[in-house]
Amino acid sequence: MMMPLIQFPPFGLADLEKRKLLFDELEALTVWHRVHCDLYREILDRNRGSIENMKQIEDIPFLPVRLFKHLDLASVAQEDIVKTVTSSGTTNQSVSRIFLDKETSAIQIRVLVKILQDFIGVHRMPMLIIDHPNVVKNRLSFSARGAGILGLSNFGSDHTYALKDETMDIDFEQIDSFLSKHSGKRILLFGFTFMVWQHFIRKLESTGRKLDISNGVLLHSGGWKKLESEAVSSREFKFRLKESTGIDRVHNFYGMAEQVGTVYVECESGRLHVPVFSEVIIREPMNWGSLGLHEQGLVQVLSILPRSYPGHSLLTEDLGAVTGVDDCPCGRLGKTIRIDGRLAKAEVRGCSDTQAV
After folding, report:
1. Domain ranges for the chain
2. What gap in Å lies between CA 294 and CA 208, rounded to an integer?
3. What is the pLDDT of residue 354?
4. Which residues contact 83 (CB under 8 A, 6 or more apart)?
5. So what's the pLDDT on residue 91?
6. How many CB atoms lie within 10 A of CB 193?
7. Which residues of 274-304 are buried (b: 16+ CB within 10 A; e: fewer)?
8. pLDDT digits (tens, 9 = 90+) for 265-314
9. Do residues 275 and 41 touch, judged by C-beta distance below 8 A?
10. What is 109-254's CATH number, 3.30.1150, 3.30.410, 3.90.320, 3.40.50?
11. DSSP letters along 228-282, please?
């Protein structure tokens, strides 16, 4: 399959320049999955999805992301599946299952590294993970939380967990030892948004402890639904994090288990960036037409990475908008987007909306 875009820097092409290359790869992926996944072919045929009608990116047929909660969709043989990623959900029946072969898993890691290095640099940093170690014990079947931790672990060294176990108690002894060992060094922290808020920031506040991690950079991801229910804005999250730890470099990013490796990272100007390996289309919820700049609608995400399963074009249950094209003050090229939250009455799910596992 075609992979020319994999050679480019993640934000090295203007939006118009990347569209032709991206369309060619997405078109090839659609044909691939139609041939190799019987269920995908049946879905396209039932909905009269004709690959002959694809003329631009907006014509690539999409699957509702919810479909992965109900169907096992794979484009490779069972014996070629090396890893299964599951999303978080409210019940066992509402968990997506994503099947990865060796090639897809390797591509996902490679692209994730390229994207994040553009924001945090190429050198590995001592890494403090705002979670507990038990979430990554099963290396063959990951929750989205475990997959996220292992994926981000590639950017760190001396991986240390800030929480003890499923009780979510802060392990101050481990943290103090870690910070003492790496005094003066740049520190990388990662955690899902709600975990960082509920089990790190708030617990530091409740115990009256302050940590000196002023040389740290935090990556965090996941929906803000639970924080919104507590009336916590992104600004307040960052303010209280700095009050408790001294950290003032924070990068949120948007992503999902159904497209692991494709992430949309918040830059220094507060915008989420669409890398060259992917595209975001905002759809009108009533007729699926594509919307223009700053118009809110349903978020469709497209990515060249999913090869072992037909997840290259997905309609999410998230609302958002395109906020700019090739005009971000940070200097990165391509589209920028915002994510406004879940569609009303959509099933609650998100990587950060998790309890202890």
Report:
1. 109-254
2. 42
3. 32
4. 99, 100, 105, 140, 141, 142
5. 45
6. 25
7. bbbbbbbbbbeeeeeeebeeeeebbbbbbbb
8. 999 999 999 999 999 999 999 999 999 999 999 999 999 999 999 999 99
9. no
10. 3.40.50
11. HHTT--HHHHHHHHHHHH---EEEEEE--GGGTT--EEB-TTS-EE--TTEEEEE
From CA 343, how far away is CA 58, in angstroms rounded? 21
**101: which 2 tokens?**
């072969």
Q: How far apart are the C-alpha atoms of 22 and 56, rounded to whole Å?
A: 10
For residue 21, what are the contacts with CB-CB under 8 A and spacing of at least 6? 4, 5, 13, 276
Q: Tell me how far apart the alpha carbons of residues 251 and 260 are, in angstroms, rounded to a whole number.
A: 18
Q: What is the pTM of this model?
A: 0.88
What is d(CA 152, CA 41) in angstroms, rounded to the nearest whole number? 34
End-to-end CA distance of the chain: 37
Strand pairing of 141-143 and 125-129? unpaired
Burial profile 323-340: b = 16 or more Cβ within 10 angstroms, e = fewer: bbeeebeeebbbbbbbbe
Name the amino acid, one letter, at 3. Answer: M
Task: Round to whole Å and give the CA distance between 76 and 309.
Answer: 7
Provide the CB-side half-sphere exposure for 193 (13 A, CA): 24
H or E segment at 181?
A: helix 172-181
